[in-house]
Request: fold
Amino acid sequence: MKQTIDTTLIRYNYSAWAVLLIGCVITLSSWFFLQNNNRQQADTQFQYRVSKIKNAINNHMQAYQQVLAGGVGLFAASQEVTRAEWKTYVEKLELQTFYPGIQGIGFSVQLKPEQLAAHIANIRAEGGFFSDYAIRPPDERLIYTSIVYLEPLDERNKQAIGYDMFAEDTRKIAMTRARDTDNVALSGKVKLVQEIDSDIQAGFLAYAPYYRGDMPHETVEQRRQALVGYVYAVFRSRDLMQAIEGVYQGYIDVQIYDGGDREHLNDERLMYAVKANDNAPSNHLVTDTIGVAGHTWTLQFRSLPAFEDEVNSHTPSIVLTSGLIFSILLFFMIRSFETQRLLAIEQRTNALLHENQQQLQIAKEAAETANHAKSAFLTNMSHELRTPLNAILGFTQILLCSKHIPFKLKGKARGILHAGEHLLSLINDILDLSKIEAGKIELYPEPVNTGSFFNEVVEMMRFRSEQKLLNFEYVKADDLPEGILVDPKRLRQIVINLLGNAIKFTDQGSVTLTVAYDNGSLLITVEDSGIGMHEDELERIFQAFVQVGEERYKSQGTGLGLSITHKIVKLMQGEITVSSQFGQGSQFQLMIPVPEAQAEHPEPETMLPIDVEQITSYQRTDGEKAALRLLVVDDVSNNREVLHDMLESVGFDIMDADSGEACLQVVNTFQPDLVLLDMLMHGLDGLETMQQLHALPNCSELPVMIVSANVEQRMQQSAIHAGVAAYLAKPVSLPILFHELSKHLPLTWLYETEQPLASEDYAHYSLEWLNSLAQMVTEGDSQALRVLVEEFKHQYGRLDPRLDVWIKEYQYEKILEWIEEAKTTVA
Reply:
């Protein structure tokens, strides 16, 4: 009996200690959760206040822009606005009451050198303060601007009368932007000429252009010719922020820096700072940018002690103390329980655990159901989005190939094509990411000839790199086997993603692809001399929707490419690593285990047309003269029309059918040389139609190409195994379509030779200007290149319109060819 009691007590003591341990763990977990929750709430509150400050700044600046617009309207409504009228207008605005922060609102007139004498005489004739009126600084210039009105005309603002703001670089940049864009433009940080005492503040100005009403101002050149002057506002930074200080006073320290560089914040760029309790500890710091009237400010927000006191909560400490006390009390209570009570508790605990397991199983099944629903939804949405995109991109490609569309409009059409291709890329990336996360993506390994595989990828990417004047290198190790067993689609996707990123983030220098093989693994290295990455960015580079680097690169992608690449590499049992130094380039290293395989030597294929826009027709290679006949089968009229117009424009004889049944009815009478079939149609689908088609007399060898919005790899594999000649995805790519037609039909493409400009069209180009243009192209300085072209058009009024398109599309080789042609004529 004693032995039984001792055993029970020992068992009981173990249980009590376990309960104490569990209680402490729960208490500490709760404390940690509440601490973290409080921290998140504090972060949310801080972000909310930061957002209020930014909104307040935006709202004030938008209101001030409306004031400038009203001033422009006053000038537009009157043939001439007198000084008294301007004063009355500004007084009615009640600046100090409704627009605090504005030092003054004025008007600056633009003058040519021959207008100066008469202008100065007219102002001096007003007498009084204006008797000694003069334009400052007095240096000789091609264009003068002079402040003639500025209200309220107090002692500060009197200092600005006659000042030529266009003579100072920072103001000139903003005035030029306002003039050329017909929008309000904000200047950078300046020292105002009104600063006449010891209380000197950072200042800035906002300009609204005013043009002559009897002259057009639709283009940049027209605006420059029609400009009369500028309605402008003068701001002192501290006075402006004091108008909205109620939003942050005492809680947040706000600092405003000129420009958008977040990395180099210094006093030279500082425009405003609270700097209250500068040495006080702060738990929240946010640096952000804000765009105001075409100019960027960098804002830094730091929490002050008053904010920390407001968001701090004592709840975690209370929970920690009370939880530990309760756990200790519970420990002593359990030690006094009887052995029977312990058994009952154990039974109840087991029942609860069983119930929790059932609930977890239910939750798991619900999650799997939701995951399947998401995958089905994304697949259906991909199909539904590809169908209208097929029409958009298809008709756009038709416009680009048309010989009747003006060259400038073709540039607009290319913009539509690029935007649609970007949207298509986003759809593909999201669908791939969803499949990977749902575990639905499958690999289809097959023997791949490494030589032809990597040569194809290299040629494709070399073209992209040459458009940016980059040096592309391909290094192939001697030990690379002739064939490997791998999924070629996924391997191609990985390599193209890595090379595409390297080219995208490299403006000058080189991109290198190295391929080797070691111990049953394919080793791939992609190295570039681009912008590189910071160390903290390397930790996030493979996360979905994460984009690093400057803002100008972020608009060029979706932030999914590297995430998808990383997940596919993991699916292939491989590893991917990255190393980088900011400003010195990046290196991605890839290791994928793949066995060697016996791969067939692929027959050389005809390369894709370099420029399908230059294809005018085709020539049959079988000696026949009649046009080749193609039968287009699709139950959507827009899809049929796209293919019809694409193919008919180069000389094919086309017949349409709106269903598989209609195809079988007309095939014997039309006798096509090739059939293009949609996969999913009402009635017979694409594969069923092809099977019945091949069963007809004289149609067993008829080539059939599937054109479908369903891009599932399983569907493509099934179609290829069923005997289709090719599987083309919608939206239809015209180069791919023409390439496949040349593989399965007896034809060669005929091209239109691009004609150079007539020699007399080069007469107004100087050799010096052409050399400067060539230097900008060689250096890859696209911004300087655009400035040089715009200055030329401003001076001479005309320029070959193709240059604008080539610059936008980085077709530097065509620009250099154009320059050489022009030089031979000028010389």
Observations:
- Residues 2-77 form the longest helix (76 residues).
- The longest strand covers residues 102-111.
